[in-house]
Description:
The protein is an alpha/beta fold and 425 residues long. It is built from 13 helices and eight strands. It has helices spanning 19-49, 58-70, 73-89, 96-120, 122-134, 149-161, 212-220, 240-255, 273-283, 312-319, 329-334, 362-374, 397-414, and strands spanning 163-167, 176-180, 191-197, 224-228, 261-271, 293-297, 348-353, 379-384.
Amino acid sequence: MAETDGLDGVPPPAGAVAPATAERRAPWTGTLVALVTGAGASLVAAAGFRPLTRRWPEAIGASLLAAFATELPRPTATLTVGVAATAVRRGAARTVPGRFGLGLAAAAVVALLTLDRRARATGQVLAEALAGALGTRVAVADPPAWLSPRAVTAPRRFRAAGARDVAYGPHGRENLLDVWRHPDLPEDAGAPVLVEIHGGAWSSGRKEDEANPLMSHLVERGWVCVTVNYRLGPGSRWPAMIDDVRAALRWVHANIGAHGGDPGFVAVSGGSAGAHLAALAALTGGAGTRVDAAVTLYGIYDLTQDDGSGTLDLLLAETMMPGTLTDDAGEWIGASPAHCVHRDAPPFFVLHGTGDAIVVPEQSRAFVRALRAVSAQPVAYAELPHAQHGFDVLPTPRTLLVVRAVEAFLEAALGRRPVRPGRVA
């Protein structure tokens, strides 16, 4: 006699799962989702509080993983809650392992929101850093909403209003720069200038990739910004990189007036390898390459010291330096900004994240100590709680706080507030 499903004696369709069997199986689908979600979110949150590794190149993965917790905590928490809710609907709460996974997810969300609060408190850290260096209280206003439409569209609009792929040297694509300017900036505005130098371990990266939130903000407020390519290793070796940065500065001093800029005030900025190059250019500027202020983020300032990976000397020998540290220590010392500090150094604003998985904050601390020991100009230093290497790529709340602090520092170095395009002085 055929087995029925209890509904008018009609047998179930071929291949159908009996309701009782389906009910027994369903919780384990949700349980698996809960366990994976809880474990993954917990790993991300833990990486946000402490780098999983600083050894190169594994630190790149550790940095990217931690960035979801330190730079995108709210979106990461929201995603975790959404997936956990799906697990509950699939029965995760009806099994012990499922409840364990949901508990892990809940704890991870609490940790992520803690990191979010600390990131949003960065303004206080920045204000104290500027007050200590400048001697006056500088308010760092609350940032606008994260990822506003203007923050997304401004880079394209300001590049279009300026000039793209301008040759400043003889080395093809590696010697091109872009000029960013506001469409309403007069040709004779005499606006202050910021030159941005990209990072990428001296062997990768390009001028379009970094500091877009900073340059967009400054251009909106009456600055002209320039971002440059330079020769990269391992195809090119030191001092090709710094030679190109100096060539770009010479171009800026000679030509930026035609783009509404003022060669009388040229600042430099950069992150990571770009911070190293920006700092060295600022400390060793000469005729036609003078730098009036420098802003450097999560940089390496002493090539002879550990960056946290234990392999910095090997990386540099493979990708950039012409010899090894053992064979040619003098070249490495001369390429280190920490060994080039002097009394006439321009004002510096140095920033580093405490959670940086790629470069330890001690690189910045030691550089700042060396600068402060001899420089007659202000040296501001801010350690940002849990901030990750490359944190400023996206226009997150932390990035926008830093952008406003950098603007305040540069205005103090300039001695005035530029006229915003479209407004009367």
